[in-house]
Amino acid sequence: MISLQPKEILSEEDINCGMRLGIKEGMATETMTVLTSGAFLTALSLLLGASNLQIGLIAALPAFSNISQLLTIWLVKRYNNRRAISVLFSILARIPIVVIGIIAMFFPRSISMQFIIMFLFFNFFFASMAGLSWNAWMKDLIPEKVMGTYFSRRSSYLQTLNVCMSLITAFGIDYIKDQYPKLELDAYGGMFIIGGLMGILGVFLLSRIPEPKSFLGNDSILKLFVLPLKDNNFLRLLIFNSFWVFSLSIATPFFTVFLMRHMNFSISYIITLTIISQLCSIATIRSWGIFADRYSNKTILSICAPIYIICIGAWSFVGIYTQFYSNFALLVVIYALMGAATAGINLSLTNIGLKLAPRKEAIAYLSVKNTITAIFSFIGPLIGGFLADYFTSRHLNIRIEWIGPGIDKVFRLLSLHQWNFLFIIGAVLALISLEFLVRVKEVGEVEKNLVVKIMRSSIRNNLKDYFVLGSMLNWHNHLLAVIRKKKPEIAQEELPKQV
Questions:
Q1: Which keywords are on file for this protein (predicted)?
Q2: Helix, strand, coil content of the chain in percent (nearest 5)
Q3: Angle between helices 362-390 and 69-79 (to 10 degrees)
Q4: How far apart are the C-alpha atoms of 121 and 127, rounded to whole Å?
Q5: CB-CB contact of 252 with 313 (8 Å)
Q6: Distance in angstroms (rounded) separating the CA atoms of residues 229 and 224
Q7: 434 secondary structure, DSSP code
Q8: Backbone phi, then psi, for 358, in 5-degree steps?
Q9: Contact at 8 Å (CB) between 423 and 313?
Q10: Domain residue spans in the chain?
Q11: Residues 364, 39 contacting (CB under 8 angstroms)
């Protein structure tokens, strides 16, 4: 029987063991996430005839369920056992996933969007309660000096797993859809059952991670909730984070819907684009973690956020080409940049929230941050769904037409319709939110321009080392080239120049 009681003092071996188990638990949970969320959940919803408002509601549920974190604070204060709380509510969160899978596979006539939304609500509600305890638990477990590096390494492992599983699953779904269309709902049901069981395995691993004992005061929940709001610097971070997630949640939940409904992309193409994004995220997240630890999380945010905003605006140009490959090439660029930017943004937002939260009141600070941003994250997709319906019959086309002898050519510069309006609105609001980021202060903050110069220098040095090392490893090829020349003395003079 595994004891879930926290320890007064953790040894270095306990910490290292907990960090290793944290990665394994994350991989089990990531398996569940891949099979039961994202593009696959959207595809299942569209298969069941979901409306734009229902799509927006599903996207809003994770944020809305964060109100449950107030209950988590009370439980932590009452029992002072974050591990037990995380384990209990993680199990409760996984059960609805398995139930959805069983109903979809064995009782297909009983499943509906209302059923999906109801059980997803319980999934997100309990997962949110577990997540807050987990965040505060990890803040005390992971040493602050390696926090950025650890979470970036953990994220890279999870994203690698995500890439492999998503691609295999997407091709499997498309194959079943083409060859055995009547089994498509059964396939999604099987995915939810497997995902839920893997999530339960993740809970078992989670229960083995040690927890250092936390110390909370005797303040009431209301006082704990108000305390972070009196911290001016944390309040500025809260304002930026709330405005930022609101801006993005208007547009981002409908990317997959746009590709499936308007562009007629199959799930394989969508997952391929997602994988491109994840590969770019994997390739950059460790660098973001290193630079965040060396300089500051705010600096990384000020670099990545504008890139992400440009990508959202670029979605407005998707579909203006008549050829599939032209649109797909544009999407590849967008997804690649979004992946690199998202890695830095998510890592920095998580770390800066943990960093600005005082140790003793960490759970209260994180709860307030999650609860308030949840309100804006909940409203955003609902407004996005409403706007998608509003702009259904409205179009804005900007084009240039050239008419001459023997030629009549039209160049489409911009074509805004139902979904594209959402992307423009989200990009503009996200750009405005950056004004609030400037006011946030972080210890060790370094000027953005200086970090950009250092990053460029680092990249150049890495490339230089790569090419010099490559020349050294291929010295025999250079030597053969010299021997084959008729004038070896000339070749010897030119060799240093080639290097």
A1: Membrane, Transmembrane, Transmembrane helix
A2: 80, 5, 15
A3: 170
A4: 10
A5: no
A6: 9
A7: H
A8: -60, 150
A9: yes
A10: 12-396+415-446, 452-498
A11: no
- pTM, two decimal places: 0.73
Q: Looking up tokens 């229902």, which residue turns up?
A: 54
Rounded-to-integer distance, Cα 251 and Cα 245, Å: 10
358 three-state secondary structure: coil
How many C-alpha atoms does 243 have within 13 Å on its Cβ side?
18
**Fold classified for 12-396+415-446:** Growth Hormone; Chain: A; (1.20.1250)
Output the average pLDDT for the chain. 81
Which of helix, strand or coil describes residue 403?
Answer: strand
**Other CB atoms closer than 10 Å to residue 143's CB: what's the count?**
10
In terms of phi and psi (left: phi > 0; alpha: psi -120 to 50; beta: otherwise), the region of 417 is beta
Residue type, 26: G
* Nearest alpha carbon to residue 203 among 350, 75, 31: 31
Tokens 């972080």 correspond to 442
Instruction: Please report which helix (H) or strand (E) contains residue 422, including its range.
Output: helix 418-437
Point out which residues pair with 401 in neighbouring strands: 410
Biggest alpha carbon distance in the chain? 88
The token pair that represents 280 in the structure block: 């770019």
For residue 230, the 8-state DSSP code is G
Phi, psi (rounded to 5 degrees) for 7? -105, 145
384 touches 422 (CB < 8 A): yes
Task: Output the CA torsion 421→425→427→433 (10° steps).
Answer: -170
The secondary structure of residue 440, as a DSSP letter, is -
CA 173 to chain centre: 23
Q: Decide: 242 and 368 in contact? Cβ < 8 Å.
A: no
Which pLDDT tens digit goes with each residue over 434-475? Answer: 888 888 877 644 454 544 554 445 444 444 443 333 443 344
CB atoms closer than 10 angstroms to residue 186: 16
């979809």: which residue's tokens?
104
- Top pLDDT among 310 and 493 is at 310
User: What amino acid is encoded at 202 in this protein?
Assistant: G
How many residues are given for the chain?
Answer: 499
Give 71-95 as a DSSP string. HHHHHHHHH--HHHHHHHHHHHHHH
